[in-house]
Amino acid sequence: MNIIALMKNGCCILVMVLTLASCGDKKNKEETTAKADSIPKPTTKNQILGVARIEPEDGIMSLTAGTSGRVLSVMIEDNQAVKKGQVLLDVEVVLENAQLRQAQSKVGTQQATIAANQATLEALKITLNNARDNYERNFELYKGNAQTQQALNDSKATFDKLTKDLQTAEANIRQAQAKVEEIKADINYYRAVVEKKRVGALMGGKVLKVLVKTGDFVNNDTKIADFAPDGALFAKTEVDELYAERVQLGQKVFILSQTSGDTLATGVVSYAADYLKQKSLFKDQSTEQEDRRVRDVSIRLESGKMPLIGSRVDCIIVLK
User: Fold this and answer.
1) pTM exceeds cut of 0.85
2) I want to staple 219 with a disulfide (CB 3.0 to 4.6 A). Which of 64, 68, 145, 243 is the partner?
3) CA 306, 310, 315 angle in degrees (round to 5)?
4) Residue 247, class by beta-carbon neighbours within 10 Å (0-12 exposed, 13-18 middle, 19+ buried)?
5) Average per-residue pLDDT in the chain?
């Protein structure tokens, strides 16, 4: 009986050893799988955990139309990268084109008026020279008692009138030339307006969401798209005042998924505000009263796989 008992005990021990070995292998496989899907997390307890939002350095921007009119065509789509100056929208320009053509036609009319005034001026110059010669001749005759006072006065009046007519003609030409410059300025303005109706990107970046469609009417302040300018992405968080002074520039940060807990990216603290403010990021209600203060902190993400813009993540700041 003792031998049988010993054999039973030996079998039990063998089963337990095999079971433990199997569990250990399973655990090792699970750890290996987890590590393959994420960057290793920090192990130090000297860290600060926070909630952050992924944004460009200056935040997500709203592109505005900057003009008014009916949208003829939308030349962008969601998730599209655009370059500076690239056309985003075509807006109706019927009225502006009509104004441009009208201004251009006025230039020709005004130039014809200038040409007519110049011809009149040249004719007046000839007539004025003749009147001057006639007045001077009558003046000499009058001094020799060979011409009457009336004839001298008439020639003088004719000369004076033609002198004023010449001055008026010159003034008309200057006025007409100034009018041409005004019309040219109007033409440049209408051309600029027409060009402005083609809404272009002021900088390079990515269109996140298009907010207008063909047929919509837009004005200067109409938002046409959510936009992320080119450049690095940042995780923006707020650190409670209890830990605020422990945050320093250059500290290593791990960005974690709030759903899986995997490390999505790494980065460094690139900005830490010099003041404490009321909590605002991820605040549940705008009217909520906050007793504690927080410090704004920005984390510049390092190159590699990036979280989605606008996503909410956890961040671990590793203290030095």
Assistant:
1) no
2) 68
3) 60
4) buried
5) 82
